């Protein structure tokens, strides 16, 4: 298989972690006979420095015409002063909306080797944490009308939550398809006891669920879900929910795994061309020191193989290699524990590559 991957190394630790992910993808490609070619483009702060624009046109074109996008992170204090419409983060919003990436997938997976990093009770952790939050990304209250008015000397603000059937239907399909590639269970999260958007959400997801008789489906109210994620996360496989609930629940979900440097994410749309990135930012405090944990980015590469290229076996091979390197005790600074063997960002990438070799 031949694929063109658009690469945005970005700012801060971005170049360091993406370089390691590219090494790992090359290694998997060589092992399984695929050719991944990387097309590096500028977006974010580095693009502002180079040409004054956070998202140059040719960069966006490259994202739209390639087979998938791999991103490190963008932004940093250096660009705090730039115009708000040209901030580094705007580049990501621009790419997400131009590519129509309506589904954000964030796995919450605790590697058993890093159990001690979870803030949860060890008995709960022992049951395992391995689920994905599928968050609707371009609708809901974040995209409805916003307004602040002043009446009788008092300000009043409004944010409107809007969902239409087709928006719910397509994200529901993403969730059921994702569950088919996992343990076959979808929990749809809403606030149907209060909100009309949630009642429609539940109606549409229930309808879509009938097309997936092989997937177990249930609903849960969002407040209860927030409790269940800390009480018994092992009950979840795929959680699907609207934009704001997903924003909050996906942060809660990554927190219980204890390590920001380990978690990948993907943003998907109507086509196979998606965007893959670690959940953390550009970590300016450790940039340029070969200290960063590249695993979140490397696992983002694994998600790319699975969701954009349907290379399930190759994707699992990366996950297996990461797990084996952790088994052997190797740790970057952020996940260092008693008895761990401290390695740099590039050494971690090398170790994962040799495990695949
Ligand atoms: P951050 O995620 O960059 O860093 C938070 C803390 O976690 C720091 O102490 C950092 O050193 C550590 N950390 C993050 N990733 C790590 C890794 N891979 N290995 C080891 N340690 C790691 O969040 P922060 O500091 O709030 O934001 C820094 C910049 O990144 C800001 O300009 C922010 O706007 C931007 N940002 C960009 C994102 C993106 O490109 N998708 C997402 C979040 C923030
Ligand atoms: Mg958030």
UniProtKB/TrEMBL annotation:
Cofactor(s) the protein needs: Mn(2+); Mg(2+)
Mind telling me which residue stretches traverse the membrane in this protein?
none
Q: Which parts of the sequence bind substrate?
A: 96, 106, 135, 223
Q: Which HAMAP family does the record cross-reference, listed alphabetically? A: LeuB_type1
**What species was this sequence derived from?**
Feifania hominis
> Which key words tag this protein in UniProt?
Amino-acid biosynthesis, Branched-chain amino acid biosynthesis, Cytoplasm, Leucine biosynthesis, Magnesium, Manganese, Metal-binding, NAD, Oxidoreductase
Q: Where is this site: Important for catalysis?
A: 142, 191
Query: Per the record, GO CC terms?
Result: cytosol
- Quote the protein name from its UniProt record: 3-isopropylmalate dehydrogenase
């Amino acid at each position: 298989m031949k694929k063109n991957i658009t690469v945005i190394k970005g700012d801060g630790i971005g170049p360091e972690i993406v370089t390691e992910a590219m090494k790992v993808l090359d290694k998997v490609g060589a092992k399984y006979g695929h050719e991944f070619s990387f097309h590096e483009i500028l977006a974010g702060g580095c693009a502002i420095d180079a040409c004054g624009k956070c998202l140059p046109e040719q960069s966006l074109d490259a994202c739209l015409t390639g087979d998938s996008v791999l991103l490190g992170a963008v932004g940093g204090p250096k660009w705090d002063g730039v115009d708000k419409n040209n901030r580094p983060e705007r580049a990501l919003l621009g790419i997400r909306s131009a590519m129509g990436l309506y589904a954000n997938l964030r796995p919450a997976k605790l590697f058993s080797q890093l159990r001690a990093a979870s803030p949860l009770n060890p008995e709960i952790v022992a049951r395992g944490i391995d689920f994905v939050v599928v968050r609707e990304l371009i609708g809901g209250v974040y995209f409805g009308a916003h307004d602040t008015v002043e009446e009788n000397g008092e300000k009043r603000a409004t944010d409107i939550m809007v969902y239409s059937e087709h928006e719910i239907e397509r994200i529901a399909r993403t969730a059921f398809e994702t569950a088919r590639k996992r343990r076959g269970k979808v929990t749809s999260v809403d606030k149907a006891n209060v909100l009309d958007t949630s009642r429609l959400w539940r109606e549409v997801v229930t309808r879509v669920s009938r097309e997936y008789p092989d997937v177990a489906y249930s609903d849960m109210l969002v407040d209860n879900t927030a409790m269940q994620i800390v009480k018994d996360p092992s009950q979840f496989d795929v959680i699907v929910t609207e934009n704001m609930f997903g924003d909050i629940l996906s942060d809660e979900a990554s927190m219980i795994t204890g390590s920001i440097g380990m978690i990948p994410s993907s943003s998907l749309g109507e086509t196979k061309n998606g965007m893959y990135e670690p959940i953390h930012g550009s970590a300016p405090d450790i940039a340029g020191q070969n200290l960063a944990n590249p695993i979140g980015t490397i696992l983002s590469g694994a998600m790319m193989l699975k969701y954009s290229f349907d290379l399930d076996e190759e994707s699992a091979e990366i996950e297996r290699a990461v797990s084996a390197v952790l088994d052997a005790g190797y740790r970057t600074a952020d996940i260092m524990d008693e008895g761990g063997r401290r390695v740099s960002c590039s050494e971690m990438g090398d170790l994962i590559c040799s495990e695949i070799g």
